[in-house]
Write a structure and sequence with these properties.
The chain is built from 9 helices and 14 strands. It is an alpha/beta fold. The model has no long low-confidence stretch (mean pLDDT 92).
């Protein structure tokens, strides 16, 4: 039997990432530590921070049982010099990262004999950047470039050699829940089955090609929809990214944020958008539709809808494309 590996993970803990940690541990490897986002100065014991900590523990307990890994909260201004000794003390072979939006210094990557690997939620080299999933949906390129890439971490953003990729199927884009389930499945397999191949010298990777590719970033503020988009596209935006991107329609010159669609009224009417009793009625390119207004209740509903649904079931078979496999 091959020697198990030890890894430090840099990621938030949720129903999307906890299956990856559980699969890593169940395959006999060690989770040396998990570096999670820490609170801002003066907010260490606020209600929101305590709630986040409880959510992490619940996700870990649901997937790993009582095998709780050490958690390291890493707060702004993100002092890597202070964090370095704690990472070094973990004596891990590898660093695995998902969802950390800043560049990790080369000095930190050098603390790990096998370096660092990143899980990027798009098929690189397309859609590098901090918001690939959002831009894929907005640009309607999700079926072409949607998936997860495991790549080496370097001194550049999302620029390291590609080790393996998993593409998402068309049915994975029905809702936030299906996207998150596909993301959880792909990350668990790439981190647990492919990363060890790289560590044991069986996978070299492939350099990313040069070219002008979309940099995936979305600006703060509302994303205005209406007659320029189809009703299907607007519904997908609301279902998948609506909890984090303020998908909105203009009413009397002011943006009103949308939640999930309710019904299709018929063809476009040419009438102005209107809002009443928590509902928004407006024209899309192909139909006049009704959506819920985004508020506290619909926000909770969107968050509930985004959770993966078949936790605990057998891991599905995925089509993994490896790069630079060695004999």
């Amino acid at each position: 039997m091959e020697n198990p590996l030890s890894a430090v993970f840099i990621t938030e803990i949720s129903s999307v990432t906890a299956p990856m940690l559980a699969r890593w541990a169940n395959n006999g490897h060690r989770v040396a530590a998990v570096v999670v986002p820490g609170p801002l100065a003066g907010k260490r014991f606020s209600f929101s921070v305590l709630r986040r900590r409880l959510r992490r523990r619940f996700a870990l307990r649901s997937h790993l049982g009582h095998a709780m890994p050490p958690l390291i909260e890493f707060s702004p201004p993100h002092d890597w010099d202070a964090l370095g000794p704690r990472l070094s003390a973990a004596r891990a072979d590898l660093l695995i990262c998902f969802g950390y939006g800043k560049l990790i210094p080369q000095t930190v990557l050098e603390l790990f004999p096998k370096g660092g690997l990143n899980l990027h939620p798009a098929l690189l080299p397309h859609y590098r950047g901090p918001h690939p999933m959002h831009r894929l949906i907005i640009d309607q390129m999700h079926e072409a470039h949607g998936g997860v890439t495991l790549h080496k971490m370097t001194s550049g953003f999302d620029a390291g050699d590609i080790l393996a990729q998993v593409s998402f199927a068309a049915e994975d884009w029905r809702s936030a829940a299906t996207v998150n389930q596909a993301l959880a499945n792909a990350m668990a397999v790439l981190a647990t089955d492919v990363a060890p191949e790289f560590c044991r010298g069986r996978l070299a990777g492939m350099p990313q090609p040069d070219g002008a590719y979309v940099w995936a970033r979305i600006e703060r503020g509302p994303f205005i929809v209406g007659k320029q988009f189809s009703s299907e596209h607007v519904a997908r935006l609301c279902r998948i990214v609506g909890s984090s991107v303020p998908v909105s329609v203009l009413i009397n010159g002011r943006p009103v944020r949308l939640a999930q669609p309710i019904r299709r009224l018929g063809p476009p009417s040419g009438e102005a958008a209107k809002c009443r009793r928590g509902l928004v009625e407006f024209d899309c390119a192909d139909a006049r539709v009704v959506h819920l207004v985004y508020n506290k209740l619909s926000r909770l509903f969107l968050r509930w809808q985004s959770k993966p649904r078949h936790r605990g079931r057998e891991q599905p078979s995925l089509d993994i494309r490896r790069f630079g496999a060695k004999d």
